[in-house]
Amino acid sequence: MSITKLFGNAMTWKEFWKLISSNVQFAHMKVTDRCNLRCGYCYSNTFGEDMSLDVAKRTIDALLGLNAGSVWITGGEPTLNRDLVKILSYTQKHNLATGLATNGLDKKGNAHSYVYLEDLVGSGLNFVSVSLDSVRDTDVSEKSLERLEPLFDRFVQLRGKYGTIIQANVVINRQNMYELRSLVEFARRKDILIGFSLNMPPLNSDCHVLENPALLYGEDGYRYLSENTCAWLIREQQAGNILGLPEYFKDMQQYLQGRHNMYCSAWKKYLAVDNQGNVLRRNRLSQGPDAKIWELTENKLETYRAQFEQEI
Ligand SMILES: C[S@@+](CC[C@H](N)C(=O)[O-])C[C@H]1O[C@@H](n2cnc3c(N)ncnc32)[C@H](O)[C@@H]1O
Ligand code: SF4
User: Fold this and answer.
1) Pairing between strand 278-281 and 271-273?
2) Mean pLDDT of the chain
3) What beta strand segments (E) does 232-285 contain?
4) pTM exceeding 0.85
């Protein structure tokens, strides 16, 4: 069934965003910890087996029980989970709006085939965020245009058929910071959304980046970022050329000087379920089993919600 049939009309990204933002139960499902790449900045860790289809279905059932309107599927690299298409079919069957974060590459580092992508999109994907960091591979990331352009073309074709929203997601790092304009230009040419985030430190507070951000971006780099990139990105956003920017762009200077006590707060109030079915606070997804608050199987989601509602 196509997304258009599911929702009457294909959603615009604004509608999708409103939907996910208005639900406190906006949930992330980490369907695998495994990955085919080793990005230099990655905060993801490896802890165990892929999420099984059974755990995925029980998670989705539980989320539906909480009236969640959407689920965001992530990893590791989610396309390595062999049951991903079945998981998506299950979310579609239950009318759960679904987004996927992916690097778009297969085990050999090539863009996924049209046939596989159609399986994904056709089984119920409303929003896909494909990571795109640079024009060519760098030491930090292989999520480059030279590898991914065919993938974006395939998604654009599939968008015509299924209405899926496509976003390129860029993590600004030491090696791509001078070519961001090419990426915005690419997104404009293909008529896809583009979003940016900074290279967030891991969530443990003794991370060196907080003490000396220049280690991450280099002295010149972080001056360039705070003096040029920040203002330019805000202008691009105001012109409607890029998707919303995280809050911290408004005071990038402060962020880059480490004068803040902020971690990836984008996730703070959301629910996350890791690959073993553990329910976590979303901002701890990358911290592993010790961050677990309840096991889904303990059926404590209602308790979580009660506590959550008290906090807001
Ligand atoms: C953890 S990845 C999972 C999906 C997939 N493997 C990918 O890279 O797209 C989800 C998103 O988080 C981004 N990411 C990973 N580590 C990050 C960090 N330290 N700071 C900011 N974003 C990060 C990735 O680039 C990707 O866009
Ligand atoms: S950012 Fe994504 S693609 Fe890169 S290593 Fe982490 S999980 Fe893998």
Assistant:
1) antiparallel
2) 75
3) 271-273, 278-281
4) no
Residue nearest ligand 2's atom 4 by CA: 39
Between strands 127-131 and 165-172, the pairing is parallel
* Cβ 78 under 6 angstroms from ligand 2: no
- Return d(Cα 75, Cα 245) in angstroms, integer: 22
How many angstroms does the Cα of residue 5 sit away from the middle of ligand 1? 31
The per-residue pLDDT for range 104-134, each reduced to its tens digit, is 999 899 999 999 999 999 998 999 999 999 9
Instruction: Give 2's pLDDT tier (boundaries 50, 70, 90).
Output: very low
**Domain spans in the chain, listed from the N-terminal domain onward:** 13-23+33-46+81-262
Q: How many Å apart are CA 114 and CA 102, to the nearest integer?
A: 15
* ∠ Cα 296 301 307 (to 5°): 135
CA of 50 to the centre of ligand 2 (A): 15
Q: Which ligand is nearest to the CA of 99?
A: 1
How far is the C-alpha of 222 from the C-alpha of 237, rounded, in Å? 21
Q: Is the CB of 44 under 6 A from ligand 2?
A: yes
Residues 131-149 have pLDDT tens digits of 999 999 998 899 999 999 9
Residue 42 reports pLDDT greater than 50: yes
Fold topology of 13-23+33-46+81-262: TIM Barrel (3.20.20)
- CA 199 to chain centroid: 13
